[in-house]
Structures are given as structure tokens and as C-alpha cells.
Amino acid sequence: GQQVMQIPQYQHVQEGEDFTTYCNSSTTLSNIQWYKQRPGGHPVFLIQLVKSGEVKKQKRLTFQFGEAKKNSSLHITATQTTDVGTYFCAPFQGAQKLVFGQGTRLTINP
Amino acid sequence: DAGVTQSPTHLIKTRGQHVTLRCSPISGHKSVSWYQQVLGQGPQFIFQYYEKEERGRGNFPDRFSARQFPNYSSELNVNALLLGDSALYLCASSPTGAGVAEQFFGPGTRLTVL
Fold first, then answer.
1. A81 and A62 in contact (C-beta within 8 Å)?
2. Measuring CA to CA, how many Å separate A16 from each of A60, A61, A76?
3. Is the Cβ–Cβ distance between B44 and B35 less than 8 Å?
4. How many domains does chain B have?
5. Which of A96, B37, B38, B58 has the highest CB neighbour count under 10 A?
């Protein structure tokens, strides 16, 4: 089945710095979703990408789906303390089975 | 509107015991999925139910079972608990049973097995 690898596993930045997490698959993905999980919280849906080369923006967040649909990235511009959490990429496999990566944990020094 | 609700929030059990976790989806959502999240890892898919039928099963032993009721709420049952079953159990609901759709997660049940 589909598996995704996320890098880096951990990232610590100064507030105001940019942050990027990458999601890579050895197989072509039909779609990918991104979720954010705050410390002690539950995953919250951020975005869904389905088209090759797709780019979507949400305020300071930019999501990309690779041309070959084997990788995706999330970039946050000028991080804020509210961005703290773990970011997961997760393609759908089969019915409604999300296959989560191991996540990138973002911590921010104010 | 209320989000996905789960009960209990925390639970402590001993090895060999049985546990039942409950989930109420968002009103109007007919699909419920269960995930297990071990500390420091991403959630792992256990089951999906839609219209009271099992639509998907992850790589978990038969000690794990679930069901969905006519009101679309769901129960996850785990028998013969092992220490390794200690985890956050997440329920997610979706309005449809198939296709790519946003999953709405509940706050989870934190299970500790001693």
C-alpha cells in the first residue's frame, strides 16, 4: 500500500522564520491531504490536493503537489506561535483510509 | 453544530481486560472511521463504517472490532488488552462513505493499559 515519508521529523524555528515540511512517496498518489495536530489535540484538516502541480494558499500557508504526484510540501511564511504543532500529510488509500506520515513537529521560539 | 464527540476522554485498564470506546459523528455524517495514534507517531487506520457496514479494515488483530448503529454513532471494542494497545484512539466522521473527503476528527480517547 501507499506509504509516505515526511522530512524533517522535527523543526525548531525562531518566530518570524519560514518553515517547510516535505512529504515523499515511492508511488504515484491520487490525492493528498494535510492535517495539523496541536500538542494534546486532535488532527484538524488543512487542505486537499488532487491535481498534478497543484498549488494552494491559505494566508501564510502554501501547499504544493508535485508534477509527478509523488511528493507534496507545506510552506509557512513568517511563523507565529500559533503555528506550533505536528503537521501530517496523508493520502487516501481505498475507501476512506487515510495513510498518515510520521509527521513533522514544529516548535517555535518566541 | 457540535463536532465529533468521543467518550470516555481517558481510560485506564489492565492487561487482559476489555474496553469499549464510543463515538458520535457530526450530525448528518454517515461515515465513521477509527484510528490509533501511539505517542510520537501518526494515526493508524483501524476501521471505517458507512451505513452500518464495514467498508475498510486496517492491519489490526481480531481483538479489535467495531460496529455502527442506526443513528450513525459507533463503538470500538478491544478484547484481551495488551500493553501495546496504550494509545490515543481517534474517531473521524465524514458526510460520505466513499471518495476523497475531509475527515473531521474527535478529541480522542486516551487509553492506558497497565
1. no
2. 11, 13, 10
3. yes
4. 1
5. A96
Task: For chain A, give the longest Cα–Cα distance.
Answer: 42
Q: Is B3 on the interface with A (CB under 8 A)?
A: no
A-B Cβ pairs (cutoff 8 Å, strict): 67
C-alpha cell at B112: 492506558
Contacting residues of B for A30, CB less than 8 Å apart: 100
Q: Is B48 on the interface with A (CB under 8 A)?
A: yes
Tell whether domain A4-109 is in CATH 1.10.10.10. no
- CATH number for the domain that contains residue B45: 2.60.40.10
Q: Where are the domains of chain A?
A: 4-109
pLDDT in tens, A71-109: 999 999 999 999 999 999 999 887 678 999 999 999 999
The pLDDT tens digits for B49-82 are: 998 999 999 999 999 999 999 999 999 999 999 9
Chain A residues with CB within 8 Å of chain B CB = 30-31, 33, 35, 41-45, 48, 50, 88, 90, 92, 94-103
The range of the structural domain enclosing residue B18 comes to 5-113
Query: Is some CB atom of chain A closer than 8 A to the CB atom of B43?
Result: yes
In chain B the beta strands, taken as DSSP E runs, fall at 5-7, 10-13, 19-24, 31-37, 44-50, 53-57, 64-68, 74-78, 87-94, 104-105, 109-113
8 A C-beta contact, residue B92 and residue B46: no
Could you give the count of Cα atoms lying within 13 Å of B98 in the half-sphere of its Cβ?
Answer: 5
